[in-house]
User: Fold this.
Amino acid sequence: MTVDALTDVAGVRVGHATRRGDGWLTGTTVVLAPEGGAVAAVDVRGGGPGTKETDALDPRNVVQRVDAIVLTGGSAYGLDASSGVMAWLEEQGRGVRVGPDPAHVVPVVPTACLFDLGRGGNFRARPDAATGRTAVEAAAATALGVRVPEGCVGAGAGAVAGRLKGGVGTASTVLDSGITVAALAVVNAAGAVVDSSTGALYGELLLRGRVEYPEERVLEAARRRLDEAAAKNAPPPLNTTLAVVATDAGLSMAQAQKLAGTAHDGIARAVRPVHLMHDGDTVFALATGAHPLAEHPLALNDILAAGADLVTRAIVRGVRAAESVDGPGGVWPSYGELYGAS
Assistant:
């Protein structure tokens, strides 16, 4: 039985560490690969990215597999969260073997951050190594194939989608070939995810073809609420949508990089505009290799198409699962508050 989440890819676990209150509104999300790691790749499209260890994922370089991906709040400061994940992996003996002793490993932990500084009221309240360790321990403690908490958790705690509250969302599918593809997204976009003239989520409209639009009185009330909230907030200086697309297919690093690249189309379908100079939009791809890919030059196509669709669906779910925030760092209504849960 599937749970419509990244964890439907066998062996993949997800853990969140969330900090709220007393000036905090941030967190970290860790995607933990199965024992032995997974082939990984990355594609960065935003003009203002904050990343760590992404060069190691270049197919021309020596690293072949990674054990974890970290998505974190805190802007560049939050990249420290990866240190806690590295320390935990080292204790498990997981990483690139660099010596004769099995304990001589260097974990490679690709990491990307989003901007949420000050959204809880305290600019210095941001994830650190301890936050990363909490998130990876949470991932390791979960059973396989369980549901993933969505909304304002982990890296999505302080996320904002345009003028709405953003968050974490996830989705999955099983292709006719039996290959599983899944995505997890953290929606913290400078662009809008909803057409304020109709109340429709861009991603949902593209996925479903049609939606039920809210009544005009609901739209008018939503516009007033958004204007009131925006007047209380400082202009968002930096934003980023992050995603991880995973599959159990046996992909090469080059094929995984193609998957990460085409998955950006999923962001572009759900966020308008996207990939701006103050975005850091980054997509990682993971391939566990449990399901062989057919030896056909076009066998990858179905995985590429599914990855993009699932990123769109994960963004929609993240926005729908988010809860409103009204605190010392700002006011961000949720989609559900403004337009209902339909």
Notes: The chain has seven helices and 18 strands. The first helix runs from residue 81 to 91.
